Amino acid sequence: MSPRPQAADRLRRVLAIVPYIAARGVVSIAELSEAFGVPEAEIEADLDILPFCGLPPYTPDRLIDVSLDGEFVSIRFAEYWSRPLRLTPAEGFALLAAGRALLAVPGSDPEGPLANALAKLEAALGAQEVLEVDIGEPDHVDELRRAAERREQVEIEYWSFGRDAMTTRTVDPYGVHNLRGHWYLAAFCHQAGDDRLFRVDRVQAVRLTGDHFAPPTGSEAPHDVFDPEGETTLVTLDLPADARWVVEAYPTESVTERKDGRMEVRLPVAARAWLERLILAVGAEARVVDPADWVDVGSEAASRVLARYR
Amino acid sequence: MRRSGWAPGGVLGGGGLMADRFERLANLVACLLDTPRPLSLEEIVDRVPGYPPDKASYRRQFERDKDALRGLGIPVTVEQHQFADEEGYRVHRSDYELPELDLTAEERAALHTAVTAVQLEGGEGREALWKLGGLGGEEAPTLGAIPSAPQLPALVEASRRRAPVGFTYRGKRRTVDPYVVLFRDGNWYVLGHDHDAGEVRAYRADRIEGGLDVGADDAFTRPDGFDPAAMLHDEPWRYGAEPPVEALVQVDGPAAGWVVQRLGHDAVVESDGDRVVVRFTVTNREAFRSFVVGLLDHAVVLEPADLRAEVVEWLTAVAGGAR
Question: Which of A280, A112, A10 is CA-nearest to residue B290?
């Protein structure tokens, strides 16, 4: 029989609730529900079970005494739980990571309450300068965020990396988000006639059009990054063994390893320029198997780049 | 030897197995915190109701309970028992209790905002806030999401304790003094002195295979002048041990603006409309080559001649496939 997670999970919460009440003397159930982010019924269940806990010989003066006066609760005989349990490594990491990340957002106050809270936390944990977060500060983050807040339509010069093409787009910016270390602009794109996610570091210029837009109705901002144009082609590559990073870096449809160590990899490709980059990085040992009209993608790209060196 | 008293959960609680187990665990924590000396296993099962009568069973049960408590972060220590010739268990309150942080309501609210604004994959920020005085203040709209990796909390903990860590990375065993854990370009890295390589290396936390072996505390000091901020700006072409080479690259077209953002405005040597010349400090020629050829015909390596020749040779080999 493995340990029952429900019992341990409940204990984890109770070991925080008891000191919370102890520090305040008398607390309402509603306040506890809000402070712990669980329904009042859960808090009541936690409090119901406590009077059966305590110290030997489990006589009334040794059992935890929970008094409920209408909505209000107080606790006696739990002096050993008067302070919360120290933070676990996972909890300390979660606070430091989220706090340092938010502090790294352009426009955050480096001497505000968050910075002070982190300094106190790191001092108490003895964890100064142990964790650092860099989420990048592309040039137009602040500008686009302000435009989104004011619901101002903008025209952007955008470099589509996958297609290696520069385009001018009129967009209604919904918001700017950092996903996995990169800044994205979620917006309605008038050229595409649909919601799109743009990489902020590929935005070369931002101009206000002077128009305002109505807030988006109902639909969430798009959460997946997608290429402004959409369609993909399924490509089969024959790659050398040392190109395993390709499989780790990009989503693949299938990977077949051969006895000689080479791999046959099928993956969706959004644009020819993207595949050109991939093959130039892997080198002469990479071959396109399918589709047939893309077999020479790499050699043609290499010849084009070489022309710049002559 | 066995206690005859009543089992509070079983008799009075009546809440079923979960309640039984909850009560036994809660009573065990209280008992181990309250005791002024280590308690032997027999003393524990004698004091805490709910353990089965035969020795093999209660020992197993206690081991599971001890693991559950440690899983919650409760520091159950094993010490020599005063009288009995066996091990005793206890929880020192000084190790158990959260130190006083003196957070203001505003500071606590700021942490709550951070935990809600930044979605950390599998993060336990809410549970942490329970201990710091509850989830006070407004929830913030999501501003970002960052990934996690199983070994990150342990790496931060080891870095905090200045304890070396051992792990398997790309099939090779590594021992590293973890100076800092950092997030950059979408990935978490542990950065520190690699005992075998004899230099500072960076390893991706999500590529660590299996668990960590954590060595003794206070086994290293971070050298003076170690600047994680400078390492933060390191790029793939800096992750290497080759002698540093200054390379000049001309970039034009739409790629120019992006490269300048990536390298920082300080790296720009010349700027002429859509065409820039930027400086790279290269200690990993392969990564440099991959980056530059990835810019396709928008980038040309100008200097030094041998690096330029390497890129040309590489491209010529790829072009040769055209026949």
Answer: A280
CATH number for the domain harbouring residue B193: 2.30.30
Chain A window 104-123: which residues touch B at a Cβ cutoff of 8 Å?
105, 112-114, 116-118, 120-121
ipTM over 0.90: no
Range of the domain at B124: 105-146
Q: Using a CB–CB cutoff of 8 Å, tell me whether A77 touches chain B.
A: no
Instruction: With respect to residue A61, please indicate whether it lies within any of the assigned structural domains.
Output: yes
pLDDT, mean over chain B = 87
Looking at the fold, whether B13 and B85 belong to one and the same domain comes out as: yes
B50 vs chain A: nearest CA distance in angstroms? 12
Tens digits of per-residue pLDDT, B21-51?
999 999 999 999 999 999 999 999 999 999 9
Among partner residues A112, A273, A283, which is closest to B296 by beta-carbon distance?
A273
Question: Nearest CB to B145: which of A50, A121, A179?
Answer: A179
CB contact under 8 A, A95 and B25: no
pLDDT tens digits, A156-177: 999 887 777 888 999 999 888 8
Tens of pLDDT, residues A25-79: 999 999 999 999 999 999 999 999 999 999 999 988 899 999 998 899 999 988 9
- The reply to whether A290 falls in a domain is yes
Provide the residue range defining the domain that includes A65: 5-81
* Among A18, A48, A86, A163, the residue to mutate for chain B (most B Cβ within 10 A): A86
